[in-house]
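Please think about what follows:
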Amino acid sequence: MIKDFEKLDDGSTLSADVCIIGAGAAGIAIAREFLGTQYTAVTLESGGLNPEAETQRLYDSEVVGLPHLGVHNGRARVFGGTTTLWGGQALRFDAFDLRERSWVPYSGWPISRAELDPYYERADRVLQLGAYIPYAELCASFGIEPPAFDSSKLYMVCSQWSPKPNFNRTYRDDLKNSHNVSVLLHANVTAIVTNKAATTVERVDFRTVGGKRGKAVARAYVICCGGIETARLLLASDRIEPYGVGNRTDLVGRYFQEHLHIRYGNLLGASRKHLQGLFESFYQNGLKYFPLVTLSERQQIEKQVLKIHGAASFDNSTCSGIAAVKSLYKTIVAKTYHDSKELRRLVRNAFMDSGELFRLAYRFYVQKRAGTSKIGPISFGAQCETAPNPNSRVMLAESRDQLGMRRVRLDWRLGDLERHTASEYIKTIAGEFARLGLGVFDSKELADLDDLSKWVEMTHDSAHHMGTARMNENPQMGVVDVNCRVHGIANLYIGSSAVFPTSSCSNPTLTILALCLRIADRLKQTF
């Protein structure tokens, strides 16, 4: 069932076997594991069923390190969380990504890819993904010869995209119709309250923006917030532990990681049509497959760099019909047009090149490929892992939000390892593209990657917040253990990208889901 705390009595107390904090991808995935079981679960969600400006303002934060847009634009305080924002891209971490690498400080997961595999398979089902199809097989089925990259340097993979990525829509009815699992909206958790020894959680306190207060009591608690808000809640829960729950070793909030997005300059002398055949998305069995060029393990070891992958980007010419259609669509959705005359002008521009629009429709509906304009610049975008850094961190500011909680103070930092990775990757791409006659990159822009101040200007965050409550078997080195249970606290778990020791370069949601399904199994075993 789904209830709204604003419609319940002040001072309400909820009881359940499991209390889940947050109804995003992680929280909903765990809640669904208890549907129809002998156990009860309550999920506390800060937002409502639809976005609300007042609730969203609870995310207002101070940024003192590198600029970070995702701290505000990449989070959603609403039922469904950031699944209401994302496109659904999913790709598993490789076994190599989880291993300790001597050149990557603080690297190494205490669990292996083999341990995650059965949970990855279940996470695929949560996202309604089908069997994975390798890039080479997709090329063969579409009659395309894949690029003959030197396999010791580069290889191709494809991410899959969920056909139903918005959990607000996909799983709302499952929870609404449940008799043993409930969701409470507008229940902003403000404190995790432990016993005096800080060895077990006794309750969590929550309240509405308007001041109504409640509490939840359970046998086990799972924090299913993002990498930023998880750290904030732990740090703010300082009633018993002066530095916050789970923070006796001053690790909560540290090692904040992001996926660094890098946009490289124009690719010159390339056959646009040929590259579109190699790198535009495939559609097979109702799923989207997005090709990615990945740096090999051997190259990572030899060059001592981080994990990174990327893809060609086919930008639209400003005079193309597809650019006009996109402009029309965005204008209608945002309702930024002022009168019917302006709307007619936008429609006229959108259909000024009917041949181009027909070609794109044919490519999508008949050829089952993504459609991009036949003219326009070609660039290359990459997503890069960032190294764990204890000084890159989430802290608490002195200012407070409407709930009285201290706001986030984010200090995001990058080092030379990220710059070195970005440089080596594009140089490898440039070398292989030139060798295969696929195009060349501007040599001046490549040189800019060796300039620390210039390369940072080529980058931005990806709104993937990770690492702030890292997993490690040693309580002196991690916040949670191999089961994602907070060290020293018997009944508190964290289901979030906050527990990632390192972050690979794949979108984190699939791995978050795998870890959360693993937590759900653990809870059922311990009850």
Observations:
- The mean pLDDT is 91.
- Residues 2-315+378-526 form a domain with the FAD/NAD(P)-binding domain fold (CATH 3.50.50.60).
